[in-house]
């Protein structure tokens, strides 16, 4: 906690360090990384930089924002991502939420962006005051500013985007003031969603579809056809990727710079992972659903905010090998595994106890367990134990990766937990 003036209500108080991007987003990012728990992967000790935090708001104002965040999480974020909802009615809370995001973005990016484009300062000041007074409930005047909100997952096919861009749209968080000689807007992005508030001019033509009014209906299909904006997004994606590469080089001292790491850190590694994923999706079309499910779990577990960049890339590399190995399982063997998998889950459910089976490929020693656990920790302990047992059983010259999948039918939110071991 820091003593200071709250940026919203201007009272002197204890300020909390808070993220621009709401907490439910980072929780979701962690949750959707299936490998919340990792074992046996070589780990350099340094930690990944956390999302930036700023001492900005007092406790009361934090509360104000957190209500809006709950509204967005329960009305849009989860229904769209978890239940594939496509149309959602909204009220004035949506606009308020967008303003709360983009006001935070404006305030935190203010001084840097004014240095770049001094002409924007007066426009920023005016927007900041109107939005702040609106958020505080001191005024209902929203000015002529427009607020746009759209879903990024249905990008039209005629828009050509770079390969790695998907990572930016689906997993990254970002916020900035964007300006050039004649436009300035505030922009906040988190996985799958984008929020833009105009600052100057007040209206963007061709954005009509995504404009948020006082109330109305939001559709995930609404898109922006403004190529300037897509260019902007692509450049943000590149910037974020390059800043990750940069901080990584600083973080990892020369002492641990060995060849494999160099490879893992390279651009070509990322491209290789992307490419192989695309080819794999083609290859596995014929495989039974359960095997495709296992591969999907591996694929979805690409980023875990708990891991630092190098750990992350070791994990990515292991995942790449595991997912590929699974995708090359011959059809007849895959069908047997599919049957075993389904009966394992059924048996666990019926008998209320752990059931499991093992299978092997040229690259893998794998185990699938259906665990009946009341807590995530219990499940993780079983997982760790299973990995230990397999390590002990393995012949000393056997260099295959051990992978254990656990599935907990009692856990509706995050039933899978996966662990690897490789020497
Ligand atoms: Zn305050």
Could you please describe the fold and organization of this structure?
The chain is an alpha+beta fold and 423 residues long. It has two domains: 2-241, no CATH class; 287-421, no CATH class. The protein contains twelve helices and 13 strands. It has helices spanning 23-31, 59-83, 92-116, 121-136, 165-171, 227-251, 259-265, 267-283, 289-300, 309-327, 331-351, 376-393, and strands at 2-5, 12-19, 53-57, 87-90, 147-151, 174-179, 184-190, 193-200, 216-219, 355-360, 364-370, 401-407, 416-421. The protein has a four-stranded antiparallel sheet. A four-stranded mixed sheet has the order 10-11-12-13, with helices on both faces. The protein has a three-stranded antiparallel sheet with strand order 1-2-3. Strand 10 and strand 11 (364-370) form a beta hairpin. Helix 2 packs across helix 3. The longest helix is centred in the N-terminal third of the chain and has 25 residues, at 59-83. It is elongated and about 70 Å long. It starts with a strand and ends with a strand. Zinc ion is lined by residues 6, 8-9, 11, 57-58, 60-61. The site of zinc ion (ZN) has 8 residues, from helix 2.
């Amino acid at each position: 906690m820091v003593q200071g003036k709250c940026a919203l209500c201007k009272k002197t108080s204890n300020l909390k360090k808070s993220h621009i991007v709401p907490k439910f987003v980072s929780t979701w990012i962690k949750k959707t990384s299936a490998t919340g728990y990792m074992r046996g992967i070589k780990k350099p000790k340094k930690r990944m930089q956390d999302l930036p935090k700023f001492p900005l708001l007092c406790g009361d104002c934090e509360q104000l924002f957190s209500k809006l965040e709950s509204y967005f999480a329960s009305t849009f974020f989860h229904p769209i991502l978890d239940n594939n909802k496509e149309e959602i009615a909204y009220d004035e809370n949506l606009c308020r939420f967008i303003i709360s995001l983009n006001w935070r973005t404006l305030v935190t990016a203010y001084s840097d962006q004014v240095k770049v484009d001094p002409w924007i300062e007066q426009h920023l000041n005016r927007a900041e005051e109107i939005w702040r007074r609106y958020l505080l409930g001191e005024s209902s005047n929203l000015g002529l500013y427009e607020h746009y909100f759209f879903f990024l997952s249905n990008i039209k096919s005629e828009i050509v985007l770079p390969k790695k861009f998907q990572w930016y749209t689906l997993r990254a968080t970002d916020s900035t003031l964007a300006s050039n000689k004649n436009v300035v807007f505030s922009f906040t992005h988190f996985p799958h969603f984008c929020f833009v508030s105009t600052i100057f001019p007040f209206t963007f033509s061709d954005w009509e579809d995504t404009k948020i009014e006082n109330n109305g209906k939001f559709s995930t299909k609404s898109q922006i056809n403004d190529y300037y904006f897509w260019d902007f997004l692509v450049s943000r994606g590149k910037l974020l990727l390059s800043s990750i590469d940069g901080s990584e080089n600083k973080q990892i001292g020369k002492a641990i710079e060995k060849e494999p790491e160099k490879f893992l850190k390279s651009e070509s590694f990322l491209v290789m992972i992307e490419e192989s994923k695309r080819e794999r999706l083609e290859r596995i079309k014929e495989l039974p659903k359960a095997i495709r499910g296992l591969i999907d779990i591996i694929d979805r577990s690409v980023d875990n905010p708990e891991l630092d960049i190098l750990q992350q890339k070791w994990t990515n590399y292991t995942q790449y090998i595991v997912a590929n190995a699974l995708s090359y399982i011959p059809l007849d063997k895959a069908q047997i595994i599919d049957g075993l998998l389904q009966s394992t889950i059924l048996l666990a459910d019926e008998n209320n106890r752990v059931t499991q089976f093992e299978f092997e490929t040229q690259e893998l020693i794998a185990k699938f367990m259906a665990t009946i656990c009341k807590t995530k920790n219990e499940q993780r302990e079983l997982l760790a134990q299973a990995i230990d047992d397999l390590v002990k059983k393995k012949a000393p010259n056997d260099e295959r990766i051990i992978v254990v999948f656990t599935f907990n039918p009692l856990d509706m939110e995050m039933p899978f937990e996966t662990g690897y071991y490789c020497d």
